[in-house]
Each structure stands twice: as structure tokens, then as C-alpha cells.
Amino acid sequence: MLLLRPFARLHTPGSAATRRLLHISRNRRKDGLRTVSSQDSGEQTVKGNNNPQRNKENYDLSKYPVENIRNFSIIAHVDHGKSTLADRLLEITGAIIKTEHNKQVLDKLQVERERGITVKAQTATLFYSHAGKTYLLNLIDTPGHVDFSYEVSRSLSACQGVLLIVDANEGIQAQTVANFFLAFESQLMIIPVINKIDLKHANPDRVEKQIEKVFDIPKEECIRISAKLGTNIDRVLEAVVEKIPPPRANISDPMRALVFDSTYDHYRGVIASIALFDGLVQKGDKIMSSYTKKVYEVNEVGILRPDQYPVEQLCAGQVGYLVAGMKDVKEAQIGDTLYLQKHPVEPLAGFKPAKPMVFAGMYPIDQSEYTNLRKAVEKLTLNDSSVTVHRDSSPALGAGWRLGFLGLLHMEVFNQRLEQEYNASVILTAPTVPYKAVLQLSSKLIKEYGEEEITILNPCHFPDRNQVKEYLEPVVIGTILSPDDYIGKIISLCKNRRGIQKNMVYIDEQRVMMQYQFPLNEIVVDFYDSLKSLSSGYASFDYEDAGYQAADLIKMDIYLNGKCVEELTMVVHREKAYFSGKAIAERLKETIPQQLFEIAIQAAIGGKVIARETIKAVRKNVLAKCYGGDITRKMKLLKRQAEGKKRMRKIGNVEIPKDAFINILKRQKDK
């Protein structure tokens, strides 16, 4: 009777029409069909995904021994063709039907489709026959932007080898170098692949020389392909089978699985992506988490082709997903080890926690939405474990959180996913970096914090100079790869951002690789945009953490009509305080709409105002009705209007548009 309830108003229970609709609904749930069955509409059934004949296949993963398993990732710089190559690999192995519409099949998020970048690492299981044997290949497509490098490092933990993709036209870029060393440090087999050889200006010979010089990989090992046209894709699969070693796993040992990713489903709870290191797991097993020590019953295990496909069991060396009735998002921790309840094992090493580089306040637009937003943030951080969350509050915006991100793009994507996936509207404050302060021994703050060196995530809590021995700011080592035509402009840009040159080498006759030490707050907002614009888009940039250094820092407050706006408070270097204050005041003047009263925008350090801009009031022409007459009549009307504006200014509130907090920090030109 429960199944009939949705159709009760349309059909009587037991009617032929009802049974037909139930049959169609059941088939859709089972097979993912987009259109109704042929007996109802006269049309052929169409799959909701590109998986050919899912209901006719029944994979028995136990017949694939460990020596026939290959786990590998695709790594590259942004827009070098990772997702396109993944599409061709899925097509050639029969995981999806070959059509003209197969573009970035593994990029499932709306934000990925809109921006044209990979944000989330995605897994797919492939079956490939070679030399009379059938191999099980587990492919992980990874992001290419520096802000999502944590996704790459986690994906590599489930792999034994990588495909390093390099664009035949652009050559080695900054993130290519960073991803290579991630794989090299993990001691993975690296297969260099030169993509886009079909382009008019492609120069694979030059790229091969770059790979040999920078990575010390013989150019004979490079595979030239065109992922768009499908050229030489077979050679890539052959190299995966022949060069990448099988995983070190033993099916006879007790089950031990590493959770390297997870998502949340409203109906099934947490869906964990696991790499099985030992043993096997199947439906009905009682498993335990080494993190929470809770026991769960396995409801479903399966593989991704690229959508979820349930199987009877997962065996050692394989990668798949697991559903075990975890209803709380805090129960599925990335890096957790799952094992059988009756056979405890030593937990796996897990992952180093991500180190946030940018912090921003997040608040609901309406405080009544706080609970819903908290649930949305918890579910999204389950899927994006590199975000750190601390509770925070603001006198103006109410209760919220201080979130830590790996970069500005990471922050923008997180905000966009909140809006698209959870329909949550939020206010994000100006992004800042984590500073440190070494307190004086006589300072009262030592009793409050309990330590001499404190970390400052919120600029509002920046301590006064008289209580601090020295301030410390985070620094990074930045790597820039660019054609040598733009060296002069890039060096000037780096000097303006307080950069110190550490190294400069030519990787071939035309491209140069430079290394600079930067203060993190100088590059985190708009350095990448400036670098791209002055190099006509040819330069690339990547950075890594390099600790802290002493700096002369001060806190700058922004006032609107004499009221301090805490959300715009920032920490700046003393040398740049005046220019920063003046630029932000000017941008606020452009961003804040005119009101019926005058708005004074001031940037101040302590009690000293260093910059001011004024937004004039919207005025009615009170002299329009005066045709000539005595001047005193006009002066009386203007004086009455001025008094009204003055009263309005005392009680008027200035609302700042929510996108202003990020926009005001982006420099229009470097000064």
C-alpha cells in the first residue's frame, strides 16, 4: 500500500495503469532509465548514464588476482587534457558508450561543468584485455589547480603509478612540476604522456627534451597521444599494464581498507570510497572503524563504472565504494582504517591533514538559517576534507564560522557548491592568512592563551604592538614557468609583491623557471590573475609552504560613517598600509550603492585615519519649484534638506553587498 500512495489520486489500487506506472518506476530505480519503457511509449530505452547494458552484466571481482590489478591516477597542469583522456579510456574499455557528447564524463559537479576545471577527484573501474589476460584497472582522475593539490595527494595513496600528462603546445608548467614531485615522493611509477599532438603549433620534440631535462626521464619513454581524436590511446593502456606494478596486497590476510574519499547521500548515509589493502569485504560483514571504534554492518559494496555498480565483494588490491549505514557525517573520517570486527588490525598510516593557506568568515544572511547552513557545511566538508571549520561570531553578522581553505579559488568553489548543491546563501568576509605573534613575557595575553607564541586566524584578534615581541607572517616558495619574453615584467611584479628571487634556470631555449620567496598575503588574492594578464596567459604559477618570517605588521580598520566594519579589518605590512587603505576605500566607494545620506569611508591605523572617500547622498532637487524669487527662500529649503540628511545619517545603516568582501581586495593594477 505504501508504494501505491503516490498514485492514489490518479488511479485506484490494483488498476492496470497503476501496475504499469509502478513497473516503469521500479525499472528506473533499478537501471537508471531516462525514458519510459518501450511497451509504454513505443521508444527504445535510454540509460541515465553511458553504462552499456548494466542490468545484463554481473562482475565477479574474485576472479581477478592481485597480479592482474592496476591502480593509477592521471595528473597534470590545468587544461592539459586529463579529463578528455579519461573519457577516451572509458570508451575504449567499454565502460561508457562512445558518443559525441562524451565530454568530461567524470566531472560530475555543476561547478566543474561551469568553470571547465576538475575540482573533485573521481574514480572509475575499467576492464582491459591484453596478451590473453583480462586486467582490472582502477583509474582516478585528479584536479590540476594548485588549490586542489590535497585531492591529488589523497588519490595517489590508492595508486601504484601515474600518467603524467603534458601539453604538446604549452610544455611543462608549474603544476606539472609540483604533481611530478608528489608522485616521485610517493615512489610511484611515472609514465610521461604528451597530449594534444594534433594541434597546429604542437612541438612534442621540444616537450620531450623538457621532460628529459627537468624530470630526468628518457624521452624514449614518452607516449605521444591526442586524447581528443583518440590517437595512440591503446599504447597508454598497454604501458599501464606493462609498467605499473600490481598493488602489494594479500587476500588471505584479515580485511583492512583505507577510506580516501566520501560523499553523503540523503537516503543511504555516508558512501565511503575505499582502497582495500588486505582481505575482502562483502554485504553483511560486521566492520569497525579505527577512528570512532563503532561497529557497522555493510549494506552494499561496489565499483564505479563511472556510476555506482553493486558487486558481491571487493577483494585485496581493489578500489571501490562501501555503504555501511553511517548516518552522521562525522563518522566517516578521511584516512580512517576499516576492518572486520572479529579481526582487529593495525591502522594504516592515513593522510597528513591539509594545511589551510587562506581563512575567511562565513555567516548566514539570515540567522534563522544557521542550523540548515551548519548541516550543509558539515556535509560539504565530508566531501572536501581539506576545509577546516572553527566556530566564530561577529557583532554585525551574528554566529558563523571561520573556514580555512587551500587558496582563493578553493574558497570560491566551496561557496559556489554551497549555493548550488544545498541552496544556501552566505556572506563570506575578506580572506586573510594565518599570522603568528610572539608575546612579551609580561603580556596578559600569555595567561589568556597559555603560550608565548599564538596563531591569529581573525584580524580582529590581532594583538597590540605593546604586548608583542615580534610578528610573524607566513611565506611560500613560488615556482613560475614562463616564456623568456616576459621575464622583465614578471620580475617587476614579484618585486612589487615583496618577493625574493631564489633561483632561475632555463628548461629549454625559450622557457624559464623562476623560484621566489613570497609573503603569502601578497600572492593569495590576485597574484595569479596579474601574472596571467602580463604574460598573455603563458606563465604558470605554483607554490608550497615555507614556514614563517618576522615582519613589520599592523592592523588596519575600515570605518563606514564612524562605525568599524569588523569583517573588513585586515593585517597589512607597514610599508604598504597607505596604498592598501586608499585602494580599498576607492573600491568600496565603487561597490557600495548610493544612499539617501552621505557615507564616509575611512581606513585607519589605531586612531589615525590614513585614507578617506565619500559617497555623496542621493538628493532631490528641492529648488525645482522655485522660479526666481528671493535667495533666502532657496537657502531655507536647502538648509531644511541638509538637516534631514543629517538626522538620516545618524539612524541609517549601510549595507555592504556580499560579493564586496572579495572584490575590494583584487587590485586593478599593481602600484
Lateral arrangement of strands in the main beta sheet? 11-10-16-7-8-15-12-13
**How confident overall, as mean pLDDT?**
81
**Relative strand content:** 25-35%
Largest sheet: 8 strands, antiparallel
* DSSP summary, beta strand count: 31
3D architecture notes:
By secondary structure, the chain is an alpha+beta fold. The chain is built from 17 helices and 31 strands. β18 and β19 form a beta hairpin. The longest helix is centred in the last third of the chain and has 21 residues.
Topology:
Elements: H1 16-31, H2 38-41, E1 69-76, H3 82-92, H4 110-115, E2 122-130, E3 133-141, H5 149-156, E4 161-167, H6 174-185, E5 189-195, H7 204-215, E6 223-224, H8 233-243, E7 256-265, E8 269-278, E9 280-282, E10 286-289, E11 295-297, E12 300-304, E13 308-311, E14 313-315, E15 319-323, E16 337-340, E17 358-364, H9 370-383, E18 388-394, E19 398-405, H10 408-422, E20 426-428, E21 435-439, H11 445-449, E22 453-456, E23 468-483, H12 487-496, E24 500-506, E25 511-519, H13 520-523, H14 527-534, E26 540-551, E27 553-560, E28 563-564, E29 570-573, H15 577-591, E30 599-605, E31 608-615, H16 631-651, H17 660-663
Parallel strand pairs: 1-3, 1-4, 4-5, 5-6
Antiparallel strand pairs: 2-3, 7-8, 7-16, 8-15, 9-14, 10-11, 10-16, 12-13, 12-15, 17-19, 17-20, 18-19, 21-22, 21-23, 23-25, 23-26, 24-25, 27-28, 27-29, 27-30, 30-31
Helix pairs in contact: 9-10
